[in-house]
Every structure is written in structure tokens, then in C-alpha cells.
Design goal:
Elements: H1 5-19, H2 26-29, H3 32-36, E1 40-44, H4 50-60, E2 65-69, E3 75-76, H5 81-85, E4 95-96, H6 99-103, E5 107-109, E6 113-117, E7 122-125, E8 130-132, E9 135-138, E10 142-144, H7 154-157, H8 168-179, E11 185-190, H9 200-215, E12 220-225, H10 233-243, E13 248-251, E14 259-263, E15 268-271, E16 275-277, E17 280-283, E18 287-289, H11 291-295, E19 305-308, E20 313-314, E21 320-322, E22 327-328, H12 336-354, E23 363-373, E24 376-385, E25 392-393, E26 399-400, H13 409-429
Parallel strand pairs: 1-2, 1-9, 2-5, 9-21, 11-12, 11-17, 12-13, 19-22
Antiparallel strand pairs: 3-4, 6-7, 7-8, 10-18, 14-15, 15-16, 19-20, 23-24, 24-25, 24-26
Helix pairs in contact: 4-12, 9-10
Length: 430
């Protein structure tokens, strides 16, 4: 379904309402029972999910003890990091600290959560300290399934970076592209779903192709994909045909694009049909929920975390909530927008529960922007209901950017993407 201006306005309103869900209920939450309660709420993970959860829990429950556990002093954001890889943005522009959270009374501990005792309601830190909690919110993000792709382990990642966690891997891939002689071949492999940010590989492909076209025109990017269909596919294919016909080749599963093994020493990627030699290889491997989710007992055999979509409580452990990329929350995608909204909803529902109220169904929304050139973007939006104990798309809502748009539409979406990123980082980190 394509966009119309009216549809965009309606969905923007829904997203805004969902993002600010419960703010009108704040006076109702300031009851004497809650004001006097000494409630310990611990959040693990300081990204768009965890940092937002800490902020909104403290907003809804100002007298609660709120502790955020995050080993990194500054968070490096994944959204917009593909611009860094293409040399269009600095890595420093992706980094955010926690001073804003500390300023509103949140305790931020710079350590790693090593274990969770769900029965005893404790979190053990790398330092050996043990924290007790009444409610625990996990926002652990993703970990790589090392070895799930033959030949791809942590050592291989230092040669064939995945760059699917923003930071040093982002810089490594950027440096490799810069060092590659003109005429070189860049190969990207894309796994089957689920993985973090469904359209992310294709935005990255677009921006790498832009870099090659403008800086190393004799070079080429080959995308080897384990799928035949992907998010925003018609829009990406349209952009690639227009901008990168000589610099980007996408090979889907039906054309033997699924990578089954890699050899980092030889710089080769093998499919069922052929072996490709790369000068630079970006291997996006299979993924799972962050390790702390496994140790907390909230991940199932899939490696991801089943949740109750009304409040994002774990279906496997009491008084533990899981938000963001680690969750099984389809059709809601694994995105920063989703994690941020889930955090706000989770915080609100915890506050309701502590007040003695039952969690209430809500409407959720997600918008993902993807750059196809440095100044043009496309988007996809979904609207979801969590009524009835499951997440489902709201019929007749959501949609893609229009195909073949009038001049200026793609540039306007790029401006919207920038405005969204500025808003979400300011609102989350302060």
C-alpha cells in the first residue's frame, strides 16, 4: 500500500500518540500507595530501549529507585551508522552519554550484567556486586550467532566485519572501503530473518554503492542474499536501477545468493553454486538475543524472547520484561523506533500494575527510514494492535513511500529521517 499525504498525517499522529502513551495518566499514578513504596526497578542495556525505559519509569514512578546497567560510557547508535560507513557522517555524531538520565535521579552503573537469578530477583554484575530488583527490564539487543555461518567466528569478524553493532566494527568497515583500490569488489552477505533492522542491509548497500560510484567508480558491490524478498524491495530496486546500475548487483536466494560458508583468510564467500572473491567483505551473520537474556531464562529455543505484547513481560519468567531487538514481537520489526516505543509502553504498564491496575491494550506504530542516496530516503510504517494477547497489523494502515515520486519527495523523507533521529535521541538521552 502506498502513501498519500493524508495517510502520512494519520500515521504520524498515531505514532505520536503511541510514543507519548500515558502522559495524561501521570496524576493518576501519583497515588499515596505508590508515592510511599520503595520499589527497585533495574534496567539492563542503555540503548534506545533501555535508556527510554529508565527515563519513563522514573517519570511515571518518581519515588522508585531506578538503576540502569550499561558497560559503555557512551552509547553508539545503529540508526544513521550506514552514513558513517559511506563517509557521510562522523562516528562521534552517533554517540550519546547518560548525563541526562543521571540528572533526573536515575542511577547509571557502568558495568556489565553477567547473570540474573529470576527466583531470587537479583542481577550479578561483572564487578561481583549483586543488585536486587522488584521489576527487571532487559533491553539486551542482539548478539551474533558465532559459527552459525560456517567459517564466521570472532576472529573472522576482524577481517570480514559485520558492523551490525555500531562502534569499532562500523569504523573497521569504513576503513576497509577507504583502503580498497579502485577496481575492487565489495561483497555483502545478508542472512535469513529475523535479524536487527530488516531494511538495514539494503540501505547500507545503497550508500556503499554511492561511495563506490563517486569515489571508486571502477569498483562494484555484490549483495548475496539468503532471501528473495526483503523490506521496501520495490523502492530499493527502483533506486538501484536509477542511481547504481553499474555499481550494485543483488543476487537473491533463487539465484543461489545464500552464503553457506566464508573463508576469511582467502577472502571468499561461498554459496551453493559459486565462490566469490572479495576485496572487502561485509558479512551480516545470523543473530540472537543478547546473552544476558539466555542467562535470565527469558530466551526460548529460537534464541529470541517471547513476551506478552500488552506489557512486554516475559512469558517465561515472572517480573522480568524484555523490550527491543531481543523480543519475539512480529509483525513489529526489530528497530530503534520499536524498541523506544516498547520501552515507553512497558514503563507505563509497570506503573499501572504497581498501582493495582491491569495492563490495558494499546495501539503501537513503527516507522523505518532508509537512505537510498545521501539526500534521499524511503520509509515504511506499520501500525499494530496488542489486543487479545498478540501483536497484529491494523488492517488498512501503514504503507510504503510512493514509487516514482514527484521531485522532492525522497529529499523530504530524508529530512524527516534527520528530524526523527534528533527527536528520539534528545527525548531518550536528554
Amino acid at each position: 500500500m502506498n502513501w498519500s499525504p493524508k495517510r502520512r498525517d494519520v500515521l504520524a499522529g498515531l505514532a505520536g500518540l503511541a510514543g507519548l502513551a500515558g502522559t495524561a495518566a501521570l496524576p493518576l499514578l501519583a497515588s499515596p500507595a505508590i508515592a510511599q513504596a520503595q520499589t527497585n526497578i533495574v534496567i539492563v542495556g542503555g540503548g534506545f530501549g533501555g535508556a527510554a525505559a529508565a527515563r519513563f519509569v522514573k517519570t511515571y514512578l518518581p519515588n522508585a529507585s531506578v538503576t540502569l546497567i550499561e558497560p559503555q560510557a557512551r552509547y553508539t547508535a545503529c540508526p544513521f551508522s550506514n552514513l558513517v560507513i559511506a563517509g557521510l557522517r562522523s562516528l562521534e555524531a552517533q554517540q550519546f552519554g547518560y548525563e541526562g538520565l543521571k540528572a533526573i535521579g536515575i542511577k547509571v552503573i557502568g558495568d556489565r550484567a553477567e547473570d540474573v537469578d529470576a527466583a531470587g530477583r537479583t542481577v550479578t554484575l561483572g564487578s561481583g556486586d549483586v543488585l536486587s530488583y522488584d521489576k527487571l527490564i532487559l533491553s539486551p539487543g542482539i548478539d551474533i550467532r558465532w559459527g552459525a555461518l560456517e567459517g564466521y567466528d570472532e576472529a573472522a569478524a576482524s577481517i570480514m566485519p559485520h558492523a551490525w553493532k555500531a562502534g569499532p566494527q562500523t569504523s573497521l568497515l569504513r576503513q576497509q572501503l577507504e583502503a580498497m583500490p579502485d577496481g575492487g569488489t565489495v561483497i555483502m552477505s545478508v542472512p535469513t530473518a529475523p535479524y536487527r533492522c530488516p531494511p538495514g542491509p539494503y540501505e547500507r548497500a545503497s550508500l556503499i554503492a554511492h561511495y563506490l560510484r563517486t569515489q571508486k567508480p571502477a569498483s562494484k558491490l555484490i549483495v548475496l542474499d539468503a532471501k528473495d524478498e526483503f523490506s521496501k524491495q520495490p523502492l530499493f530496486l527502483e533506486a538501484w536501477a536509477e542511481h547504481y546500475p553499474d555499481h550494485l548487483e543483488w543476487i537473491g536466494a533463487s539465484d543461489f545468493g545464500r552464503v553457506i560458508s566464508v573463508d576469511s583468510a582467502a577472502m571468499t564467500l561461498s554459496t551453493d553454486f559459486d565462490t566469490y572473491k572479495a576485496d572487502v567483505a561485509n558479512v551480516i551473520p545470523p543473530q540472537k538475543a543478547g546473552e544476558i537474556a539466555v542467562r535470565a531464562g527469558v530466551a526460548d529455543q529460537t534464541g529470541w524472547c517471547p513476551i506478552n505484547p500488552v506489557d512486554f513481560s516475559s512469558t517465561l519468567q515472572p517480573d522480568i520484561y524484555v523490550i527491543g531487538d531481543a523480543t519475539i514481537a512480529a509483525p513489529m520489526p526489530k528497530s530503534a523506533f520499536s524498541a523506544n516505543l516498547q520501552a515507553k509502553l512497558c514503563a507505563l504498564q509497570i506503573a499501572r500494575e504497581l498501582k493495582g491496575e491491569k495492563p490495558a491494550p494499546t495501539i503501537l506504530a513503527n516507522t523505518c527510514y532508509s537512505y537510498v542516496t545521501p539526500d534521499a530516503a524511503v520509509s515504511i510504517t506499520g501500525v499494530y494492535s496488542n489486543d487479545g494477547g498478540r501483536l497484529s497489523s491494523v488492517e488498512g494502515s501503514g504503507g510504503l513511500s510512493p514509487a516514482g515520486p514527484a521531485p522532492g519527495v525522497r529529499a523530504a523523507e530524508a529530512a524527516e529521517a534527520e528530524a526523527w533521529f534528533e527527536q528520539i535521541t534528545q527525548q531518550t538521552f536528554g
